Amino acid sequence: MAHQPQPYPLNAEAVRTWSSLALAALGRAREDIDAINVFPVADADTGTNLYLTAESADRELADLLAAVTDGTAAPSLPEAVRAFAHGALIGARGNSGTILAQLLRGVADVLGDEPADRDPADRDPARLLAQALTRAAEEAYRAVAHPVEGTMLTVAAAAARAAEAAARAAGTAGDVAGAAYDGARAALAETPGQLAVLGRAGVVDAGGCGLVAVLGALWQTLSGREPAPEPVRGRAVPVTGPQEPCAEEHGGPAYEVIYLLEAAETEVDRLRTRLDALGDSLVVVGGDGLWNVHVHVDDPGAAVEAGVVAGRPYRIRITHFGDERRRARGERSQRAVVAVVQGEGLAGLCGEAGATTVLARPGEPPAVAELADAIREAHAREVVLLPNGAELRAVAAAAAQQARAEGVRVAVIPTRSEVQGLAALAVHDPDGTFDEDVVAMTAAAGATRYGELAVAERQSFTSAGICQAGDVLGLIDGDVAVIGTGLAETAEAVLARMLGSGGELVTLVLGPEVPDALAERLEAYVQHGHLAVDTVTYQGGRWSAPLLIGVE
Q1: Contact at 8 Å (CB) between 196 and 180?
Q2: What DSSP line would sit under 126-149, residue for residue?
C-alpha cells in the first residue's frame, strides 16, 4: 500500500508540499499531455511547458526555504505563496505555462494578503482557499486577450465554482480543494464538446489536463489522500488512425515570442493593444512592474520592439513553429539546436533552420541559468549549443554541464559570431548521428572567417592603431584590422582582407540602421573583384551589430 501523506493546514509548509507534488504530477503526465496538445498550436509541448513553469516555481520556493537559518523565522503563508507565484512568473513557458503563472498569481493575491482587520470569518482557511481559486480564474481570463471556452480557462472557472460551493457548505480546506479537483476533472471531460479542434482530434484540452494535475496535488496536500492513478476520461487518449489536422497547421503566425518585461501597468495596457494587432494567442501576466509576455506572430521583431517601447524586455525567446509542428506530426527528432543571437532577424533565420534561440541584448549576455533553461525547453535528448560569442564560451560550457547532469547529451560548438552559427546551421543534419552532426557543424563554423563593423565610443589603442570616438572599426576574427571614417569604405577594406585568402560565399548581416544601399554596394564590390564568390544578405534586426561579415 502506498504511503499516505499526512494532511497539512493551509500554511507555508502546505504551499511547499503542493509545489513538490504538482511538479511530480506534471513530470509523470508530461509526455501524455504533450501527446494531446492540439490547441492553440499543435506543437506537442504543453506538458513540457507546464512542467518547466512548475519547476521554476518550485525552485523559487526552495530558495526561500534555504535562506532560513538558525534564529531566522520560517516563511509565512503570504511569503511562501508569493514566492511560488513569482517563480512561476519568471519561468513561465508557452501559452499554458503563462496562464498557470497567472492562476498562481491570483491565488497569491488572496493568500498572500492577510490584513489584520480582515473579518474573522474571512480568515477561515476553506473560505480563503475558495476565494483564492476564484480570483485565480478571474485573473487568468483577464490575462488572455481573447478567451476561448473548452480550454484551461474553462477548467479553472469550473474548479472555482465547485470550491465556492464547498466553502458555502462549511467544508474544510481539504474539502474545498477536493471539490475544485472534482469540478476541474468534470469540466476537462467536457472540453471536446466545447472546442471543435479537440472534438476532431478526440482529445481533451492539454492545458486543462495539466491544471487537473496541479489541483490534484493541492487536494492531496490538504487532505492526505492521493488522487486515483487512473487518468480522467479522455486524458492522454489521442484517437487512432488519421486525424484531421487542426486549423493552425494550415496557417497562423510562424513564431512564438516570449519575454519578461519591466514596465508600468499603464504601458502594459498599450502593449496589449499593439501585440493584439500583430498576432494571436496573446497572454500578458504579472504585475507590480514585472510581466511575462507571450504572443504568436509573423514578425517577431515587431513584437520585441513593442516591448522596448513599453519598458525593458529581457530573457527573450523566439521559436519558429515549423519545426515544432513537424515534431507534432510524429517527425520529432531527438536532437535540437540552441543558438544565442543579437537581433530579431537573426533569431528568425535560426528559427527557420530549426533552432531554439535566446535573444541577447548588447552588454547583457545570458546567464548560465537562462541557457540551461533554453536547453531544457528544447526537450531533446541531444542538444547542440551555439554560443555565437567568444565571451559566452564559459557560460555555455557551464549550462551544458548542468544539462548533462540531467541526462541530456550536449555539445558546445565554439562559434564566436552569429555568422559562424549560421554556417553551422546550414550543414546541421538532425537525422545523422550526433557525433557526425557535431563534427560537420564544427568544421563549417571553423571554416568561416568572421568580420564585424563597430563604431568606437572613445579614443583607445587597438591592434590597428589609435582610434577616435566615432571612428568605424573593422574587426576580423575578433581583432581590429581597419580603422575608417565611413561604413562603406571600412566594410570594403575588411572584405578585401578577408577575401585575400580566398572564399566561396560571403554572408552580410545588416544592422537596424544600415541602409540597403550599403548591401547593394558591397555585393557589387564582391562581384566585381571575385566573380566566383556568391553573396547572401540578411537583416539582423534590433541590437545586432552595424554589419556582420562571414566568408566561407
Answers
A1: no
A2: HHHHHHHHHHHHHHHHHHBSS--S
Q: Burial, 512: exposed, middle or buried (Cβ in 10 Å; 0-12, 13-18, 19+)?
A: middle
The three three-digit cell numbers of residue 525, written as one number: 564590390
Rounded CA-CA distance 26/56 in Å is 13
Task: Encode pLDDT of 9-25 as tens digits.
Answer: 889 999 999 999 999 99
The arithmetic mean of pLDDT across residues 224-250, rounded, is 49
Contact, 473 vs 502, CB < 8 A? no
Q: 472-476 and 279-287: which strand pairing?
A: unpaired
DSSP for 496-544, please give it: HHHHTT--SEEEEEE-TT--HHHHHHHHHHHHHH-TT-EEEEEE--TTS
Q: Which residues have CB under 8 Å from 271's CB, separation 6+?
A: 261, 263, 284, 293, 306, 307, 309, 310
pLDDT of residue 529: 78
Closest by CA to 306, choosing from 334, 336, 278, is 278
Strands 335-341 and 355-359: parallel
Q: What is the pLDDT of residues 95-140, one digit of tens each?
A: 999 999 999 999 999 998 755 444 444 578 999 999 999 999 999 9
**275 contacts: CB under 8 Å, gap ≥ 6:** 145, 282, 284, 293, 295, 297, 303, 306
445, containing H or E segment? helix 434-446
pTM (2 d.p.): 0.74
DSSP 454: E
Amino acid identity at 116? A
Please report the DSSP string for 278-329 in residue order. Answer: HEEEEEEEEETTEEEEEEEES-HHHHHHHHHHHSEEEEEEEEEHHHHHHIII
Q: What's the rounded Cα separation, in Å, for the pair 29 and 35?
A: 10
Cell triple for 531: 566573380
Q: Cα–Cα distances in Å, from 119 out to 77, 122, 123, 169, 241?
A: 18, 5, 7, 19, 58
Residue type, 193: G
| Nine cell digits for residue 429 | 543534419
For residues 552 and 105, give the distance between their C-alpha atoms in angstroms, rounded to a whole number.
50
What's residue 332's pLDDT? 44
CA dist 48 and 29 (Å) reads 9
What's the one-letter identity of residue 194?
Answer: Q
Degrees (nearest 5) of the Cα angle 32, 36, 40? 135
- Give the other-Cβ count within 10 Å of 394's Cβ: 11
State the Cα–Cα distance between residues 529 and 387, nearest whole angstrom.
Answer: 33
| Residue 256 confidence (pLDDT) | 87
| Cell matching residue 209 | 489536463
What percent of the chain is helix, strand and coil (3-state, nearest 5)?
A: 50, 20, 30
Q: Among residues 295, 300, 302, 388, which one has the least CA distance to residue 340?
A: 388
CA angle 534, 537, 538 (to 5 degrees): 150
Quick count: other Cβ atoms within 10 Å of Cβ 433? Answer: 11
d(CA 279, CA 303): 9
